[in-house]
Amino acid sequence: MTHPIAPLVIRGEVITDNLIEVGGRGGDLAFLTPDAHQYIDRLPLGNPAKLADLYALSFEDILDYCVALGERLEFSKNAYLQEACELSYRTAPTTPTIVRASYMGLQHLLSRELITEMVESTVGVKYLEGWVPQTLLDGTELEVRCFGARTLHIVAGNAVALSLWTIVRNMVLRSDAIIKAPSNDPFTALAIARTMIDMAPDHPLTRHLTVAYWKGGDQALEQRLYQPQNLEKIVAWGGFASIKHVTRYIQPGLELISLDPKRSASIIGKDAFANEASMRDAAVRLASDIGAINQKGCVCARTVYVQSGTDEEGLERLNAFGRYVYDAMLGLPNSLSTAPRSYDRNLKAHVDALRLDDEWYRVIGGQDGEGAIICSQIPEPVPFATLLDDRTANLVPVDELSEMLDAVDAYTQTVGVYPESIKDQLKDVLPLYGAQRIVSLGYAAAMKFAAPQDAIEPLRRMGKWISNQIASPETTPAPWLRPSL
């Protein structure tokens, strides 16, 4: 069998020499890729003055490029994306219909209006276009501008759009990007880069993108590459081990922007049980937050605190609601959610064990690996809550919303809330415990370019914020003219 090739792209050049065989995550696909060790000296940009060509571009020029790229990322007309999609069926953690829908949606991320909104909401276009002046209280004239940087991106592979998101962020900042492709999505960033090369091979935005694959933890390569003379920033998505590994290279002059693993939760207020219609509305919204991309995203709901009450009547409400959620999850569109590709064996063993204990837990579904809803009969989550995955969620009954606050910590990313009316009770309290994003139930997977992420603003952090002070004794008190004591 012929192995597919994941080329190396270095700033407009597609390289298929010096191939070595590597395996995708889980051993589902072996592919060939150029040995990054052979190109280690070419991966960094080198002289940072080479970023200057990006500053000949206006923001409108960058938008024009993005819109043109979006037109070429129409899935039905892009052979690179089609090939990447077919290969990703074997490496992605999700199923083919979800993978295909993700590829089909890429072009919609590149609208002029969406990118402008993202930049204005986070950095501000004027700070990318030139020096922004102001006069301070002491008469100093201060100018501030945001510059691009030489950046390495260690991209996660649990969502196809992350590669394009990374590329867009770098383009608007006028940065040079090296993308280290993940083992469970080694093809998406390459497909986009090759589309860019076909479209505009000599354009500065094309010539400041490098995409390479190497096995994470390759110290011989990373020790040479991860140096301040090569890079100014590393943006790392990934699990605990990979983030911990990267930190060994961080030193003065090399900044880590960590988008590390998170867990998400949901809160269902008592008004969800006001009538049958509100119960079913909350159930389908929660099912969406559990089932989106088969629960493979940090944003997906896992532990759900339900203000049903903990008495006998309350538990009856909880269990009925759990059945509604399970039924709604099975009815989600296959572009959003399906039966998992493979149900985690360890998780299934835990879930099956709970079936024998209906005094403390009720398990709805899960016999066929399609996902399950576990209804705790006590106000505590299951002991294996951190393992919840593959469309498996735990509903925990509470009497008061405040009872779930101790379960929120720095690992809590998204909290879905229903109904909207209880958000005012929660939105100023949840962040104190560590919650990073509060969202209307059902919209957890609808991440927004314009919003912060993981309690930071990555786009702002990826830029270099430079100040220029203009002062003279005529306008600003001069330090050398202070009176002696």
TrEMBL record:
A biological-process GO annotation: bioluminescence
Any one Gene Ontology molecular-function term assigned to this protein's record: acyl-CoA dehydrogenase activity
Keywords: NADP
Keyword NADP in annotation: yes
Record-linked SUPFAM superfamilies: ALDH-like (SSF53720)
Source organism, top-level taxon: Bacteria
The name this protein goes by in its record: Long-chain-fatty-acyl-CoA reductase
Source organism (scientific name): Metapseudomonas resinovorans NBRC 106553
